[in-house]
Specification:
Layout (H helix, E strand, L loop, with lengths): L4 H4 L1 E5 L2 E5 L4 H12 L8 E4 L20 E5 L2 E5 L1 H16 L4 H5 L17 H9 L13
Parallel strand pairs: 3-4
Antiparallel strand pairs: 1-2, 1-3, 4-5
Length: 146
């Protein structure tokens, strides 16, 4: 396998195996969302999501031993995710997208007056990750589709 494959795909590695996903395909995007928020792998595991495909980020990824709080290597950011706490945040970002808000509007916290609860996360690598994952309106954490 060519090494550039690891730069261009999202990687989920666990004792069960390695999954190489591409967010440009809605099925892969939904699979990644489900892995992060619902079908968290058995430890130890790593999750890598490249930002720009120019760098190998897998060597920087933390090995996770806890399904309740784990790190995702998102580009050069190590993002701490707590599914029980962050699933509602992801759902809120998805809702804002589905209502026609742009990434920039959400990022600029233009919707604070709607009490979205996102202001606590601006600016943060977690919000960047949630914005990327929620980019397609049809993908929602907790859906039963894979």
């Amino acid at each position: 396998m060519r090494s550039d494959v690891f730069r261009k795909k999202d990687i989920v590695a666990s004792p069960a195996g390695v999954e190489l996903l591409q967010r440009k395909f809605s099925e892969d995007r939904q699979r990644l969302i489900n892995i992060i928020f619902r079908d968290i792998p058995e430890p130890p595991f790593i999750i890598c999501i490249p930002l720009d495909y120019r760098k190998h980020i897998m060597p920087a990824a933390r090995i996770n031993y806890d399904r309740n709080e784990f790190h995702i290597q998102y580009g050069e950011y190590s993002v701490c995710v707590q599914p029980s706490r962050h699933t509602p945040m992801f759902q809120e970002v998805s809702r804002l997208y589905s209502e026609g808000c742009t990434r920039q509007q959400i990022w600029n916290s233009a919707f604070r007056h709607f009490r979205t609860g996102l202001s606590e996360y601006h600016p943060s690598s977690l919000l960047l990750l949630l914005l990327e994952l929620a980019r397609e309106g049809e993908c929602h954490a907790g859906d039963d589709t894979d």
